[in-house]
Please model this.
Amino acid sequence: MGHGVRETVLGTLGKASILRIPPELQNLTLHFGTAVWKRDTEDPQRKLVLLKYLGGNYTNYMKGRTRFHELDFSLEILNTSRQDRQLYEYIVSKESEEKVWQIQLEVYEPVSDPSIQILSWELANGSCTITVNCTAERGDSVSYSWEGWDAGTSGLCTHNGSLLHLSYPLQNSSIACACTASNPISRGVVPFKSFECSYEQG
Model:
């Protein structure tokens, strides 16, 4: 009996997630005709049986929440929630042994379009120094990165993280950067054009 996660599937919160099995297990299911989909629970001693397949017929114990596709024996989670983030197993009974395929489902909320806030700006020695922060209101495991919005500013803007410190000479007042907020399933980009530093803005 196999152990260890064979595959990780990235699911989107509120959308359908499909758990597929490889052709080898599909063929074994057709040949031996007995299989089951199971899911881990918070209790390590308890597993949830989602579906049983026997000789062309199946029983779906999670009707309304999952859909079984007989063509390839995949299981579709219709409206993925955070509670669905679990380890799933597809087990084919092959006479005196079992063949197991494990899938870890990770669930993420998509990233919303980020927004940029100017935290501080300072005029000194003919240079303008500004600090800006990029944030996305929604999204799980969000990472931020900055890069040039056009070819001339790439080096100046390149940075990993939500905060960006920019320092540029006063005569060069049109610096354009872009912030990307991303996670494993989505990304959002917002441009930022630097303003002209002047004493009037204080």
